[in-house]
Amino acid sequence: MSKFPKDFYWGGAIAANQAEGGYKEGGKGLTSSDVSTAGTHTEPRYTTYRMPDGTEGKYSYFGGKLPEGAKKAVLEGYYYPSHEAIDFYHRYKEDIALFAEMGFKMFRMSIAWSRIFPKGNEETPNQAGLDFYRDVFTELKKHNIEPLVTIQHYDVPLYLDEELGGWNNRDTIALFDRYTETIFKEYKGLVKYWLTFNEINTSIMMKDLIPNYPKAAVAKSVQLLHYQMVASARAVQRAHEIDPNYVVGCMIAGGPSKYPLTCDPKDVLYTQKELQENTYYAADTMIRGEYPYYAKRFWNEFGIELDITEEDKADLKAGKVDMLTFSYYSTSCKTYRKDVETTGGNFIMGAKNPYLKYSEWGWSLDPDGLRYCLNEYAARYPGVPMMVVENGLGAVDKMEEDGSIHDPYRIEYLREHIKAMAEAIEDGVDLRGYTPWGCIDLVSASTGEMKKRYGFIYVDKNNDGTGTLNRYKKDSFYWYKKVIASNGEELD
Ligand code: BGP
Q1: What is the DSSP string of 61-125?
Q2: Contact assessment for residue 110 and residue 149, using Cβ atoms and an 8 Å cutoff
């Protein structure tokens, strides 16, 4: 007997800026990703810019800064992976047919805000953008695949970001409201499940990622997060007004996926504090409708005077999310000591865990950690359903001469994580869906590479942008098809 509920949502996930391409088509405005170059595991991605006198340059988010007066710009001579990505914009029918062949019940994707409002502040939406997503949702419906739609997956219209202050400006809440109202009305009947912001907690995590991150920058990201959480709470209310059947979730980067490096109580307390600030702070607020008890001390330590109004508080209360979703790739270890070996990893860098193996990109492989996270979340938020909306192994795949791709390492990774979810369900966790990341190969968010592949479907495209863009089924494609058909029972 399968441990998964019979209507469990098996599927996969992508995001607009990493898959669509067509970056200037259908009236789309530029976004922050469109000015971001490709990097590698060791070389950062750069944002390119132009000075008023025409001088051109680039800077990296890690340590660099946009010079005074510069404007982010697409420049000649650079390669920008988002411009074509995997061309989902033109090939979505073929891709959705492949997802359907695997038996997908759910497909997580995002809407690019700049397709709907190219600059972010227009009075009326861009029809071609609305039509594009209508076509995609209609195609999904034809195949009985339920969309799970992320409203902002990292990507904001560049104009909004640069000229209007982006999420540092309270006024963006109203622009987001216009955007969400538009799409909630437009896609009523086609979409049921929404996620407001992808990995909303990542802005706050920067303080532990970048060495000597200035206090003022922490204050800025805490304020930005506040505006986003208010915007999210308004979106939840808006969604329920427009269609009471809408289910709106938050999306948190990682679970409580941090272990104390040692049993030194100092490490334990250090880890607890990190979890509170980086993970629970956002989840608690969005799920419980108010800031948690430890928020005040956190604000004080960083000298933060939060701009929060009575209306904000009322919105947070009235706009509690309906479900909790999160990404889970790996775990890390935390210690207050500075003299330990650290590891890479997507926003979870930390001390190396001697009990775990690591991927080529330095991410730990820890299926037990997923069961642990699901249980921790379930205990903290009783009655709140969950979905794991990102999980997977970024790896280099090799296509054989006959077009086959053997990816046993990916199958093994996913198998172990599915087993962990089954255990968690047996533990009593209310888990409703699983959409592994990059179900079709796409551009890596952290490095901009193509060779860091997650998919069941191989896309013939290289790091430098060459390739036919043809799609091929990997071994994991056939394997996942069996997993879905057996509702998670047949895992070999
Ligand atoms: C998450 C992002 C995704 C995705 C994933 C994998 O943080 O939500 O957009 O890209 O990580 O990361 P990467 O692409 O860097 O391997």
Answers
A1: TTT--PPTT-EE---TT---GGGTTT-HHHHHHHHHHHHHHHT-SEEEEE--HHHHSSSS--SS-
A2: yes
* Per annotation, catalytic residue among 84, 186, 390, 449: 390
Q: Atom of ligand 1 at shortest distance to CA of 253?
A: 7
Q: Is there a contact between 455 and 438 (Cβ–Cβ < 8 Å)?
A: yes
Q: Give the domain ranges of the chain.
A: 9-33+81-485
Task: List, as one string, the DSSP characters of 239-304.
Answer: HHHH-TT-EEEEEEES-S-EEESSS-HHHHHHHHHHHIIIIIHHHHHHHHSS--TTHHHHHHHTT-
361, 442, 446, 449, best to mutate for ligand 1 pocket (most atoms within 8 Å of CB): 446
Fold adopted by 9-33+81-485: TIM Barrel (3.20.20)
- 390 C-alpha to center of ligand 1: Å? 8
The yes-or-no answer on residue 490 being catalytic is: no
Please tell me the distance from the alpha carbon of residue 124 to that of residue 468, in angstroms, as a whole number. 37
- Name the residue with the closest Cα to ligand 1, atom 12: 445
Catalytic entry in 186, 199, 274, 449: 199
Q: At what angle do helices 127-142 and 88-102 cross, to 10 degrees?
A: 20
Ligand 1 atom nearest to 446, measured from its CA: 15
- The candidate with the shortest Cα–Cα distance to 153, out of 255, 349, 14, is 14
Parallel, antiparallel, or unpaired for β 258-260 and 247-253? unpaired
Per the annotation, the verdict on 390 as an active-site residue is yes
pTM of the full structure:
0.96
Q: 445 C-alpha vs ligand 1 centroid, how far in Å? A: 5
Q: How crowded is the C-beta side of 430, counted as CA atoms within 13 Å? A: 12
C-alpha torsion sign, points 293, 294, 299, 300: positive
Going residue by residue through the chain (492 aa), what tens digit of pLDDT does each one get? 889 999 999 999 999 999 999 999 999 999 999 999 999 878 899 999 999 999 999 999 777 889 999 999 999 999 999 999 999 999 999 999 999 999 999 999 999 999 999 999 999 999 999 999 999 999 999 999 999 999 999 999 999 999 999 999 999 999 999 999 999 999 999 999 999 999 999 999 888 877 778 899 999 999 999 999 999 999 999 999 999 999 999 999 998 889 999 999 999 999 999 999 999 999 999 999 999 999 999 999 999 999 999 999 999 999 999 999 999 999 989 998 877 766 655 445 678 898 999 888 888 899 999 999 999 999 999 999 999 999 999 999 999 999 999 999 999 999 999 999 999 999 999 999 999 999 999 999 999 999 999 999 999 999 999 999 999 999 999 999 999 999 999 999
